[in-house]
Design a protein that fits this description.
Elements lengths: L1 H17 L2 H39 L4 H15 L11 H25 L3 H5 L1 H36 L3 H8 L12 H5 L14
Helix pairs in contact: 2-3, 2-6, 3-4
């Protein structure tokens, strides 16, 4: 009886390996790791915003509408409950993506407004925050692209034969990915001008 169970277990492991079970696990873990990196970079950006708003407010306090939009967009992002399941829910992922897009737009407008204030542009703290923001936007783009690729690999794996049978038996559906209406705009970090202000005449 014991030999029969061992033989059965061996056959089961062999069948699972041959039907892509292990590869589905590998691909699923890669998606999770890529998603965690996306969240990490978005959080890094969100953490920069309060300091950026504070510096801008010191030079351009009457630009309340732009500052309010940035603050509200950040609050909206913070209000979304981010769980591992969010990445598996198309509607939740779309809401998350929309909120992040609004924040990107608000930040872009804030940096455009900053161009009108030479003293603000010359502020060392502001320039440092701009550099950090630009670097973070680039890292967000890279992390998003890696996540999209990881989801594509996973989805191809669970939709092709014979892996699709294994995925169906063990409950591994396809995963939603970022759907970008304007990929070029979102992939372009906010323009940062490090040119020194013109000398007064």
């Amino acid at each position: 009886m014991k030999r029969f169970r061992l033989l059965l277990a061996f056959i089961l492991v062999t069948l699972l390996s041959g039907c892509g079970y292990n590869q589905i696990q590998v691909n699923d873990e890669q998606v999770k790791a890529s998603w965690a990196e996306v969240l990490n970079q978005y959080k890094r950006r969100a953490d920069l915003i309060p300091n950026l708003v504070q510096v801008v407010q010191g030079y351009a306090s009457h630009e309340k509408e732009v500052l309010t939009r940035v603050t509200e967009a950040r609050a909206k992002v913070a209000g979304i409950q981010v769980t591992p399941e969010l990445a598996n829910d198309p509607q939740a992922l779309a809401r998350f993506q929309s909120a992040q897009g609004e924040l990107s737009g608000a930040l872009s407008r804030l940096l455009v407004v900053a161009e009108n204030y030479p003293n603000l542009k010359a502020d060392t703290g502001f320039r440092d925050l701009q550099a950090q923001l630009e670097g973070t936007e680039n890292r967000i783009t890279v992390a998003r692209n890696r996540y999209i690729q990881a989801v594509e690999t996973y989805n191809v794996g669970v939709r092709t034969f014979p892996n699709n049978l294994t995925a169906m038996i063990f409950g591994y559906p396809t995963k939603p990915s970022f759907t970008v209406e304007n990929e070029a705009a979102l992939a372009t970090p906010p323009k940062v001008d490090f040119a020194p202000p013109a000398a007064p005449r």
